[in-house]
Amino acid sequence: MTAAAVPTRYPARWKRPPFIERAWLRRAIYGGAALYLVLAVGALEINWARLSEGLVRGWRFAAAFAHPDFVSRFADIALGMQESLTMTVTATVVGIAVSVPIGVGAARNLAPLPVYLACRAVIALSRSFQEIIVAILFVAMVGFGPFAGFLTLSFATIGFLAKLLAEDIEDTDPAQAEAIRATGATWAQLVNYGIQPQVMPRLIGLSMYRFDINFRESAVVGIVGAGGIGATLNTALDRYEFDSAAAILILIIAIVMACEYTSSLVRKRIQ
Amino acid sequence: MLRIEGLAKRYRTGDLALDGVDLEVPAGQVMGLIGPSGAGKSTLIRCINRLVEPTAGRIFLKGQEVTGLGRAALRQVRRRMGMIFQEFALVERLTVMENVLSGRLGYVGFWRSFARRYPPADVAKAFATLDRVGLMEHVDKRADALSGGQRQRVGIARALVQDPDMLLVDEPTASLDPKTSRQIMRLICELCAERNLAAIVNLHDVNLAQMFVQRIVGLRQGRVVFDGAPSALTPEVLTRIYGEEDWTRSIKREDEDEEAAPAPAHGGEPERERLAGLT
Questions:
Q1: Considering the entire predicted model, what is its pTM?
Q2: Any chain B CB within 8 A of the CB of A189?
Q3: A186, A198, A200 member nearest B110 (Cβ)
Q4: DSSP calls for A73-130
Q5: A–B CB contacts, 8 A cutoff, strictly below
Q6: Which ipTM did the prediction report?
Q7: CB atoms < 10 A from the CB of B253, how many?
Q8: Which of B79, B93, B110 sits opposite A189 (nearest CB)?
Q9: Is A165 part of any domain?
Q10: Which overall architecture, per CATH, does domain B26-48+79-275 show?
Q11: Which domain holds residue A220?
Q12: Which of A47, A245, B3, B196 is deepest in the core (most CB within 10 A)?
């Protein structure tokens, strides 16, 4: 009954089983990944001359942040900001209004199969295109300006919000919904009482988050002609007016941070 | 009140959960349903209000056939069957009052329920029921702020404001401590006596079933293998329901009966006293 008697019968060494059990497969996968990485880095053609030139320009750009120029292009910046904010607010509101029914339709526990498939198709379509590509299409359709940006952001919001809402609905506690069904409630009442309270905090949080994203994206889509602060920024860069560009970037950063702060505050409050 | 004929349920996975169940529950009777896990207790209860669609058999509530009803008619019948759940199944983020009023959803239109503007009679009924289960001071609290026993009282109130003819009760004490379990079972039995409701109560605790219900039905592998008075539960019967085990110690002796028998409803003072531990 001494402790020394134990190791004679039981192994004293134990190793955690490897993630990939077959040794040859494990070596092949890890080795292959390493080899690919080496080859890929080797295939990059780095032009050191261009890089040093770029560093100089980059430094001038960075230096411009020390003395941003809000004044000389003030009218352009104000207009761009106004367009961007309008675009963001309208696109977020419209986007939410459209995504809620699509999100409900894309939740398998609420929608019959045909509706589910149709809504999932809309979501897939919206998610398969990056904002810039959508913006280029809308600019081609409705012309330059913030309306194209509004359409782009609304479209992108649908894919984002409807998908996450649908997943959240599918993750709700089925017992709560079952209890509401057992009272003889209609489908609409079931959604209102059994589902909505469960998903509301997250829906509000996601909407706030999407507002953030839409503002940032509004700066990007402007570069391809969909209006907003992005267009102003693009013009400033084209003219090598780095100090005006710096002013615009500082404003964008400030607004994004303000949005971020408010949304985290709101999300904390509604839990 | 409730009549079940040849009820069978086969799930899509191929599992036969219910295999020809015949039962009749008269008004005012509290029937305990016991059996091992997977015997089909929950399925049986959910087939009655068709939260689970039966594969075969017929169900009658007060002579009206429930099986085969269309969606609108089914909703109307569901109003008359109050359901009480294991783990309470309250909508956690709604207030106690909203949870109780949700029992009226089958009676009010969508916009009224959406705006929480229930008819005054419904609101009065909800307050009266909350008072009866001893939750008057918690009306505006969120359901997730209550203790287990209090939550189950909300669940009971929600079932009662439906003005049901019967209660379907699924493991009401599964997540409660022994004392609260007894108080909840006692409350359910009293309410059934007061309102002359039939009730089917799924229970996994044989002792609790023996203490409170007037009739026990044992289910095993989807079939009724026992139907009789609690006093008729012998070791042989328990072996028939649950399988081989030493049952002699879990059989309640007659002299322990005193405290446990389902108290007839008298309301008023003794009531308060018994609720004191919960509020």
A1: 0.81
A2: yes
A3: A186
A4: THHHHHHHHHHHHHHHHHHHHHHHHHHHHHHHHT-TTTS-HHHHHHHHHHHHHHHHS-
A5: 82
A6: 0.84
A7: 6
A8: B110
A9: yes
A10: 3-Layer(aba) Sandwich (3.40)
A11: 69-270
A12: A245
**Greatest pairwise CA separation for chain A in angstroms:** 90
pLDDT digits (tens, 9 = 90+) for A96-150: 999 999 999 999 999 999 999 999 999 999 999 888 899 999 999 998 888 999 9
Asked if A115 is an interface residue toward chain B (Cβ–Cβ < 8 A), one would say: no
Distance from C-alpha of B40 to C-alpha of B44, rounded to nearest angstrom: 6
Return the closest-CA partner of residue B84 out of B199, B222, B230, B194. Answer: B199
Amino acid at B229: A
For B222-266, write each residue's pLDDT tens digit: 999 999 998 888 888 888 888 888 877 776 654 444 444 444 444
Residue of A nearest to B103 (CA): A183
Residues B17-72 have pLDDT tens digits of 899 899 999 998 999 999 998 888 999 999 999 999 999 999 999 989 999 899 99
Q: Walk across the sheet containing B2-10 and list its strands.
A: B16-25, B2-10, B56-61, B64-65
Give the CATH number of the domain where residue A182 resides: 1.10.3720.10
- CB-nearest partner of A185 from B89, B94, B106: B106
